[in-house]
Design brief:
- The chain is mostly beta strands and 152 residues long.
- It folds into 2 domains: 3-54, no CATH class; 72-149, OB fold (Dihydrolipoamide Acetyltransferase, E2P).
- 11% of the residues lie in helices and 33% in strands.
- It has one helix at 3-18; strands at 23-27, 32-36, 72-76, 81-84, 100-101, 106-112, 115-120, 125-130, 136-138, 143-149.
- The protein is elongated and about 45 Å long.
- It starts with a helix and ends with a strand.
Length: 152
């Protein structure tokens, strides 16, 4: 999937979020996309029981995170996909609560359309909260981490 296709999909999802429509399905030769504003937190679905490549992004699947301290920088999802907190299933997570990170350091990765996208820290500081679970669907701009900025 090209950058243009990803941008078009993001624009389509944004338009859906702003519309009064509750459900939308898009199917191409490369992917299937099912958006549902009435989806529940505990029931991520897979289109037609197909492999991970056909994972269906759902709208409204994130629980409301606790409010981090006002000095924390929120790191949000740059795209819709599946967030992974470690490079491999049995590997240690990239970061945990209390981990000191440098600006640009990888916090997690998001898989979208079989492409792995790193999510870097925008600031140097200490991870105060991890607001996403491993292998969870995330939507665009969903809070993932709270980082308390330091001057180091």
């Amino acid at each position: 999937m090209s950058v243009t296709d990803t941008e078009a999909m993001t624009a389509l999802i944004d338009q859906f979020n702003q519309s009064s429509a509750q459900v939308m399905d898009v199917k191409t030769s490369e992917f299937e996309l099912h958006l549902n504003k009435q989806a529940t937190v505990t029931q991520p679905t897979v289109a037609n029981e197909q492999p991970l490549a056909a994972v269906v992004p759902e709208q409204g699947v994130s629980a409301t995170p606790t409010a981090p301290s006002s000095s924390a920088t929120m790191v949000t999802a740059p795209l819709v996909g599946v967030a992974y907190l470690a490079a491999e299933p049995k590997a240690e997570p990239f970061v945990q609560v209390g981990t000191h990170v440098k600006a640009g350091e990888t916090l997690c990765v998001i898989e979208a359309m079989k492409m792995i996208n790193e999510v870097p820290s925008p600031v140097s500081g200490t991870v105060k909260e991890v607001l996403v679970k491993n292998a969870a669907m995330v939507e665009f701009d969903e809070p993932l981490f709270a980082i308390e900025e330091t001057n180091a």
